[in-house]
Amino acid sequence: MSDLLAGLSAALQEQGYRLTASRRAILQVLTSSGGHVTADDLAALVREKAPGVGRMTVYRTLDLLSGLGLIRPVYQGTGAAHYILMDAGHHHHLVCSVCHKVIEFDDCVLSEIEQMVCGRFQFQIESHLLEVYGRCPDCQ
Ligand SMILES: [Zn+2]
Ligand SMILES: [Zn+2]
Ligand SMILES: [Zn+2]
Q1: For the chain, which ranges sit under pLDDT 70?
Q2: Tell me: the pLDDT tens digits for 64-97?
Q3: Which CATH architecture has domain 88-139?
Q4: What is the reported pLDDT for 4?
Q5: For residue 134, what are the β-bridge partners?
Q6: How far is the CA of 140 from the centre of ligand 1 (A)?
Q7: What's the CA gap between 103 and 80, in Å, rounded?
Q8: Domain boundaries 3-85, corresponding CATH code
């Protein structure tokens, strides 16, 4: 079991949700896909691995995981939301506003800002998603 899958499974159970066979199959497919899938993409992938798991179950599980902050929907352009994995509590993108390419970067520079904002608003931060918009080298 990957760390990511183990982490998601544990987080669900900590929140009092049962790790049913369907949920387990959905989490498996979601983590092995690496995220950045739409609900329809994911439902199609799940159908290949676990034909017994219905589309509505996939949708409901995505809602549940989003509600718990374990994944987040992101909207790029006008299409359906992509679900991204919030591994380690954060996720960062550079998004090209011309070709809509998404570049992932792991370097986190937000901890100082988080501390400052937390203090000012007495806010307890759980995770963050950072998107920076601009032009990629090909589109400059
Ligand atoms: Zn571009
Ligand atoms: Zn991403
Ligand atoms: Zn970060």
Answers
A1: 1
A2: 999 998 999 998 777 889 999 987 789 999 999 9
A3: 2-Layer Sandwich (3.30)
A4: 86
A5: 96
A6: 8
A7: 19
A8: 1.10.10.10
Domains of the chain by residue range: 3-85, 88-139
Which residue bears the tokens 């995770």?
A: 127
Strands 82-85 and 90-96: unpaired
pTM of the full structure: 0.84
Predicted confidence at residue 1, as pLDDT, reads: 66
Q: Which ligand is nearest to the CA of 107?
A: 3
Q: Which residues surround ligand 1, an ion (CB under 5 A)?
A: 96, 98-99, 101, 136, 139
For residue 111, the CA-to-ligand 3 centroid distance in Å is 7
**DSSP structure string for 3-49:** HHHHHHHHHHHHTT----HHHHHHHHHHHHHTS-B-HHHHHHHHHHH
